[in-house]
Structure formats: structure tokens, C-alpha cells
Automatic annotation (TrEMBL):
Organism name: Streptomyces lycii
InterPro entries hit by this protein: Papain-like_cys_pep_sf, Transglutaminase-like
Protein name: Transglutaminase family protein
One family name in Pfam for this protein: Transglut_core
PANTHER family membership: BLR5614 PROTEIN-RELATED, CONSERVED INTEGRAL MEMBRANE PROTEIN
Top-level taxonomy: Bacteria, Bacillati, Actinomycetota, Actinomycetes, Kitasatosporales
Length: 201
């Protein structure tokens, strides 16, 4: 079971990172809403596919630009997993879908998201990292279709916390990096105090 670390309204709130009141985020959300069926799930699936498929992961393209604010990710169309997660959470919140940030320890800390759709009594994790050979992440409410599964035998872990805002360690790395090469040296290897999902499920 995933656990929130903030009051419920925080998962619809805007801030400097999840800046879903920015015109570009609102315009993008409006286009996605018009192009999807009139349900929260259809909108969430459209937002997920948009970020996964139209915002390339910086590691796949070699783009040296480091983005972290949701509106910047959408404008520049680049970002690592953290940045893409910020963009997806902003689009979901702009569409009225509660959403937050989740993390895995996979050598370094990997970022993904969780959302809670109307009528569901749980949060569902989704990974907008972007697919490539060997990675086939998909939007799914039945079983998780993430980019990677944590392997406890290798010291990897799934963390159960759904963060309303990025942890300081994550944001410090993104803000402090001059470029992508520098960012790889700053990425956190752990998030102290994070509780693991039982069995890393």
C-alpha cells in the first residue's frame, strides 16, 4: 500500500516545481482533455502517453539541458525521470486528478508518479520515463507496468511514499546541475527515511 506524506489538497496544489497554473501546462491539459473521452481515467491515460512519448528522456537523446519545473519540461521537451514525473503530475493536477511523486532505489534514485482516480481507494503508480529497447512501461491500473522492477537481492527498493512535492535531495540535484553530465554526479543514491514496499511489489 502506498502512503501519502501530506494532506489530500496538497496532491492537487501548484507550486514552483509542479506549476500547473502556468499557461503552457493549462493549454496542454486542455488539448489532452479535448482529445480524450470525458472521464478522469481517459484524461490520465492521455496525459501519461503524452509525457512518456513526446518528452524524450535526456539519457536517450544526450540532450545536455537539465529541466526540473513542469512548464520547462513541456516547453523544452526534454528531461530525466524526475523532470518527466514533475510534468505528468502537473498535467494530472491541472485535470483535477490527484497525483504525487514516487521513487525507487535502482543504483541511483529513479522517479515515477502515483495517481488516484475517482472511485478507487488506492494510489496507482505509473512510470513516464519513456520506452526504448528493453523498457516497455505502460499505463495500467490492474498491474504495474513500470520501466523497471526493483530487485531486493541487489539492494534495490520500491518506496511506498507518495510525495506531494519533490524531496530536497532530488530538487537539489536538478537545480545544482550545470548540464546532464554534471547531473549524473549529483543524483541521490538513496532517500533517507523512505519506507519500502513489502516485497518490493
Amino acid at each position: 500500500m502506498l502512503l501519502t506524506n501530506a494532506p489530500e489538497p496538497a496532491y492537487l496544489a501548484a507550486d514552483e516545481v509542479i506549476d500547473h497554473e502556468h499557461p503552457l501546462v493549462r493549454q496542454t491539459a486542455g488539448r489532452l482533455r479535448r482529445g480524450s473521452a470525458d472521464t478522469a481515467q481517459a484524461y490520465a491515460e492521455a496525459a501519461y502517453a503524452f509525457v512518456r512519448d513526446t518528452v524524450p528522456h535526456s539519457a536517450d537523446t544526450g540532450n545536455p539541458l537539465v529541466t526540473w519545473r513542469a512548464s520547462d519540461v513541456l516547453r523544452e521537451r526534454t528531461g530525466i525521470c524526475y523532470a518527466k514525473s514533475h510534468a505528468l503530475v502537473a498535467l494530472l493536477r491541472a485535470g483535477g486528478v490527484p497525483a504525487g511523486l514516487c521513487y525507487q532505489r535502482l543504483g541511483v534514485v529513479h522517479g515515477l508518479i502515483a495517481l488516484r482516480l475517482p472511485g478507487r481507494d488506492r494510489w496507482d503508480r505509473q512510470d513516464p520515463r519513456g520506452n526504448k529497447p528493453g523498457i516497455d512501461a505502460r499505463f495500467s491500473l490492474d498491474e504495474e507496468r513500470l520501466a523497471w522492477r526493483a530487485r531486493p537481492e541487489r539492494g534495490e527498493a520500491d518506496w511506498r511514499t507518495v510525495h506531494a512535492t519533490p524531496p530536497p535531495e532530488v530538487l537539489a540535484a536538478l537545480r545544482g546541475a550545470a548540464d546532464l553530465d554534471h547531473l549524473w554526479r549529483l543524483l541521490p543514491a538513496d532517500l533517507p527515511g523512505s519506507a519500502e514496499l513489502p516485497g518490493c511489489a
